[in-house]
Each structure stands twice: as C-alpha cells, then as structure tokens.
Amino acid sequence: MSLGCPKALVDSERILTRLRAEGYEVAASYAKADLVVVNTCGFIESAVAESLDAIGEALAENGKVIVTGCLGAQPQKILDAHPQVLKITGPQRYEEVVASVHEHLPPKHEPFVDLVPAQGIKLTPRHYSYLKISEGCNHRCSFCIIPSMRGDLVSRPIGEVLREAEQLARAGVKEILVISQDTSAYGVDLKYAAQVWRGAARRARFYDLAVALGELGIWIRLHYVYPYPHVDQVIELMADGRVLPYLDIPFQHASARILKLMKRPAAAEDTLERIAAWRKIAPDIAIRSTFIVGFPGESDRDFEELLDWLRAAQLDRVGCFEYSPVAGASANALREPAVPDALKAQRRERFMQLAAEISARRLAAKVGRTMAVLVDQVGDGAAVARSASDAPEIDGTVRIGGDTRALERIKVGAMVQVKITASGPYDLEARLAT
Ligand code: SF4
Q: Is 103 exposed, middle or buried (0-12, 13-18, 19+ CB in 10 A)?
C-alpha cells in the first residue's frame, strides 16, 4: 500500500520492482497477501493519521505488516499505536524493506525457473537493478518446464517498462539488467504495440526497447537473448555505446543433433558466423553463455563438436551444467541413452578447463587498457568493481588497488576510470586512472 507524494510512489515502485524481479507477486487484497508493506506519509498531521489508520487496517486484515516511508522516520509514533508491526524503516530504505520481506517471507529460489541468480536475491545493492520485461515463453525446449509453469510469453507494455526503467534511473540506479525468458522475443505477443514515452511512439520490440533504454544514459545490460536475425541491429547500438557491448545468449550446445533434441530456439542459425559478424560490428562485445553437457544421447562426437565450437567462438564468459532431468520435462520421454554421471562430470570439467583458458587469454589482452568500471564494494584498501563485460554475480570483477587514500574517497555505485594492471582466469586487477 502506497501513501503520500510522488517521491514515496517512486520508493514503492522501487520496492515492488525488486520484489517482482525476485519472483514475489503483488496481491490485489489483504486476504490474498502473505504480507503487507505500507509506505507511509508523515508530512502533515492528517497524513500521519491516514498512515496510522492504514497500518491498523492492514494489521487487522492481514496481521503481517512492514512499515516504511516518511512516517517511518518517527518509529515511536508508529509503535505507540501499533506495537505489533514487524519492521519500521524510514524513507528510501529499499534494501531494509526488501531484507525484511526476505526475513518474514523468504524468497523461494527455483533453480530451473528463476532468472535472477540465487546470490542476487540476497542483496541487490541500490546501484543496479533487474528489469523484467516479460513473463513466460513461447518455446518448448525439451529440458525446460518454464512454459508449463509460467505459460506462454506475456510481455509488459513498453510504456510500463520504460517508466519503470526511468524511475530506477531517477532513483540512482546506474545499471539496469534486462531480464525475461526470451528477451529478443519481447513484444511478439503484443504485436509490437506502440506507446508514447518521452514524446515519441515506441514499439514493443527488442530493438526499440534497447534504443529507448539507451536514452537513459546508464548502463543497460541485455540478458537471455536468442540469436535471431534482428539481434544484429542491437549489436549496432552496442557499437555506438548506447547499450553495453554485452550479450548473454544461452546457446546450451553446439551439436545440431543435440540442439534438435533439446528443441532449442534459433537452433538452425550458424552461430559461429553470427558471432564473428557481431565482433566485426562491436569488437569489444563480451559474449556470455550457458551450456548443458551430458544431455541424453550426447555422444563423444557431439561433445567434441561442442569443444571445437567453443574454441572457434572464443566466448568471454561461460557457465556449464551437467544435465539432470527435471520432473515434467519432455526430455524425460526421449528414447536416447542417458550419459553416465561420471562422464557428465568429466565432460563438464573439460569444457570449463577450455573456457577458463579462453577467458584468461581474452582478459590478458585487456591489460594496459583504460576503462570505466562500476564500483560494487569498497573496503580494506581496495575496491571491487565491474567492467562493461561483467554482469553482477555471474561474471568476473575488477579489483582496484593502489592509492588507498584515493580509494577511500570512492563510493559504492560510483563509475570510475581505471587502468588494467593484471589479469587472472576470470578477474582483472586495476588502479585508478590518472
Ligand atoms: S527458451 Fe527454452 S529454456 Fe528458455 S524458458 Fe523458453 S522453453 Fe525454457
């Protein structure tokens, strides 16, 4: 429940954005809610009275209430009237509200369904934020149960997405991570319906969304993109510096036979050719992907094909999972031989070894370069930051050392210029550029 002025509304939206990205849903009534967050106003006495009434009503109807907002700056006033509230925080204390929701209603992390990494759920700092643009998926990958759980693709109207992004930017977010099950399919279900934002019609289309987000002047990172032909246009936006030169594409495999068994979208694309073309357009592009090894029927030949593909693709960031069947997935009915667990583990190890060698080589080539990084942590005479190539939680970091006095002045969420001084398999080291 949100009371008060537009600033309070921005706070409410910020809290909702976080919680929605983490899988929480907004309930239409007290009875349907597991918990109520009341964002209060304390500007004048009538607003205080209205806020206290709202808290009382939520307590009577639901029982579990977290209070935030301006009146939260006077906790005793609230406690005198309603001692049973679970938590009181002041205005703009989004993290504390979200942490309190986590405490009283722990997020259920579903590894097969969630878009946000488990670690990301615990503490999403205020300088970056996930932006969910759609729910569900029109594909039917054989190892996946998301469409049966979340249904077909339902895109959020573009005006709504852009307003949320704008509010995040206004609230101080420096990096937006666009997430969905299939970002490149955004708007297909809406027939790309246009809405006006900042005085111009914007179509609900992946490219148009990327253009509009690029106008916010903050980092825009695109996750879960499939290599459809129209993605090439977005690479040009990356080359122009309008969105980050970073693409998270879950390729999952390279063998055409396995991709067919997996029923992967855009499986017919010549991905190596596409990657080479993208790197011509945006030479700095960092490509991240995930893979599954040990899918039913994966032969030695299929696996070697995958390694050859990775050698040729030279991906920057790679995650790899051993296949494990998920209850309800159609892959369970495949008449293909299962890959023994020991062989799956061995294949994963070989794959990750190769990925680490490629990553180390690509990072070594960055030594000596100057680049902008976003600071995530400061302390102990060093700062930990990320470059355009590093998404939070899943990619590497840039550790900034050197001049401790200058480092002490840096704040979390600052964008600073650094010179890269050394590299490891996944991370970089740097000092502040002068
Ligand atoms: S694209 Fe495939 S793996 Fe991804 S959500 Fe859709 S069905 Fe699942």
A: exposed
